[in-house]
Task: structure prediction
Amino acid sequence: MTPRLSAHGVVKRFPGVLALDGVDLDIRGGEVVAVVGENGAGKSTLMKILAGVLTPDAGELRLDGAPLLLPDVRAADRAGIALIHQELNLADNLDLAGNLHLGREPRRGPRGLGWIDRSRLERDSRDLLRRVGLDLPPTTLTAELSIGQRQMLEIARALGRSARFLILDEPTSSLSAAETERLLGLIAELRAEGTGIVYISHRLGEITRIADRVVVLRDGARTAELSGGEIERGRMVREMVGRELESLDSCERALGEVRLEIRGLPMAPEAPVLDLDVRSGEIVGLAGLVGSGRSELLGAIFGVAPRSHGRVRVDAREIPPGSPPASVAAGLGLVPEERGRQGLVLEGTIHENLALPGWRRTSRRGWVRSDEARANSRSVVRSLDIRPGDATRAAGTLSGGNQQKVALGKWLPLEPVVLLLDEPTRGVDVGARLEIHRRLQELASAGLAILFASSEMEEVLGLSDRVLVLHEGRIAGELPRERLSEEAVLSLATGSEAAP
Amino acid sequence: MRKALGAAGLLVGAGLAIAIASPHFMTAFNLENLLRRSSLFGILGIGATFVIVTGGIDLSIGSIVCLVGVLTPWLLVEQGVDPWIGVLGLLGVSLLLGTLHGVLITRLRLQPFLVTLCGLLVYRGLARGITGDQTQGFVGGFRGLRQLGNGRIPIPGIEGFTIPVPFLVLVVVAIGAALLLGRTVWGRYLLAIGRNETAVRYSGIDADRVKILAYTLCGFLSGLGGLLFTLDVGSAQPVDFGNFYELYAIAAAVIGGCSLRGGEGTILGVLLGAAVMQVLQNGITLIDAIPNNVEFAVIGTVILIGVVTDESVRRVIARRRPEGRGSIP
Ligand SMILES: Nc1ncnc2c1ncn2[C@@H]1O[C@H](COP(=O)(O)OP(=O)(O)OP(=O)(O)O)[C@@H](O)[C@H]1O
Ligand SMILES: [Mg+2]
Result:
């Protein structure tokens, strides 16, 4: 009999929010069930309930037909259910082997002494790491990994538990194209071995490729279940959003004078340097594989990453290296890659986050003008349609898409002249992504110069007026709008075509 | 604000209990003394608060109290230095020591615990070395200057109760500190740094300067406290003057609602926290049934109970309301 995990009528209430309103879900061994829905639809909440992280307010779980109680994560572990969280949960100060076996280290010697069998630990780790394609010694410190590598490490850890049911909550949002391919391959393997898989992603392309069934959640309720030929992008979007989504129209914008001027910025040690101008009204995309140096480049421009030589000017004003305050004063803003760590004060309220970079402006001789700051925050909440719109909520309780809007919105009151964005819509649902893209286009039309990095092809193609493709720390080529296509970007990004 | 309320409750509760247990508590003399001590420790607590809200810690407070407390009479009496120059010079030194801590912590990325632990050792060592472990005192002189520490201002129309001068100093310091924390951009930055320093840097704010400011203020207020303590008492013994005062200051901040993780704290709360500490100490001295040598055990237990209660209340509230930890209106 194939194993079968199911949830019936699950209800979960958070203060002020009904996150799940009687949801059913059924997973069998050897199939991939995708769960899709807008930000805040309740996907992660449902998964946490399946993995014993949260307990439901009502409803029940069943395993192979028998009622299943999951008071905690250990119980789920015993039942063979593993969850890879949307947010990474790794101890930076441990090595890879330590993280892979955290809480279940192989022991040796007398029981209870807690001696760790290092050699077995490392041997097991090497196998797991190889399976997910991390070619690193198990003794590497976790802190040294990129986000994508960390994600793969989390996946390896779940594999180590040899679970019968594996739940992946947005595993690919920080993976490169190559890593994503590897993961999708791995999922196919696991499915063939009989593992039941739940897969959550906002990248619908992945879902059409691997899902056997798609369950759509909207506002905490299950609105549809698709299978076979019904699994198709347009249909999924319609069920998720509840209406047709019109596509982003590429509006023609008049380009003004040069706003951001970069001369001789090193892309990597010994690599050629970068010269780049971004004009008022222009949106320039940086494409390339993860690890091609896009984040470092944006960080070096803004001053949060080191810059050994090269010059950056904003409106002809020189920006000294390593000084974010000078960058902001000159009119630069950065929406960083990791919104939880770099972009937001998660424990702070929405208002505190929106007001943070702008306090200098909304103050007179150091005295803050709270009314003005609050008015600014209110207008940002309104113009970006941040939901829920109560600015006294902690930013950390917002859904991914709304958090991203806050990370972007905090720059708006400063009226920047150049905005740098690193993965502007990571983990953001289709509807909110479209909204953010529209808003960026509007800002550009109003004269903003935008430079953004993205590993999502759709975003690069849809938003950019011009694309620079990076490959291993150098510019592989530049593509103007007319020559922009997925093939052109990919062949440059993988280095299979020389720069024109 | 809720935590300040908790500290106020603790203060009233402890005060009532002690008043019932001992007839000496509610006397004008005792209350006056209590107000004086609470004011002095309140000044130290405010200094500690600036550092704690950034997620840092300052262990050197007691040693700076010692350094300033011992060197003030030493300079003025033994060395015959002009009082103005001596006092302002020492306050300047304590301020610069704070700045030094801040610079070492931000520029060299050293841990606050480590830097200020070294400060704790170095400054006491210096004070003892310079004075050769000899008690330093004002030997009846400098009566005008000493008014700053032991002065009393009569309240017109009320007999028997006077206001200690350090309380007035505290009021000025507390108003300044509350304005700084609540109404200026620096205050916003201090609190935000305690919650997520990386995000503050990424917002284009010079977080290092803000942190240096916090340690500088803490150093200065420790020095000011040390000066007032020594002016009040009249003499200082380098071996134990100011011993453990950093822990009193930190405890006052924590009772008053500061989180040691940073990002939380109010000046009003710290003042109440400092008063709670003094009332407890006073109670142990006054109530004969409690031997004086269990003082630390009693204070430690009360703080622990307070923190545990607070944490339980916080959880109940958090279950009902998904609001931010925000203290900003
Ligand atoms: N700990 C919490 N406290 C309060 N509200 C919460 C909490 N966790 C989730 N929520 C709320 O529950 C709802 C569902 O959240 P959930 O994280 O399940 O959404 P999601 O579908 O996973 O969204 P995303 O695509 O952004 O990850 C949201 O409105 C969210 O704000
Ligand atoms: Mg989620």
